[in-house]
Amino acid sequence: MPSDAKRIDDIAWTASQGYGNKILISMDICTKDRLEKYGGHGYRYILAHIVPRMKARGVGDESIHDFLVENPKAALSFVPQGPARQNI
Q: Cα(21)–Cα(76) distance, rounded to whole angstroms?
C-alpha cells in the first residue's frame, strides 16, 4: 500500500497534469477497528492529517476544496448538467 506521502505526491502530480477536476479523496471506514475509539484513523483523518500535509506540499485551498467538495458533488450527481440535459 502506498504511504500517505506517496498518495499526496500522486494527487499533486495528477492535478498538475490538468486532471484536478477528476480527483476525489476518500477513505475506508468499513469496520469498527478503523474508528479512533478502537485504534484506527477515524473519520477525521483526511481533514486533520492529509489536508495540512497537502497544503505543506503546495496544494492550494481551492484545489483541496475541489477534491473534497466540488468533484464528489459532480461525480455523485444524478442529474445531468449542461447542454446535454434531457427531460426524462
A: 14
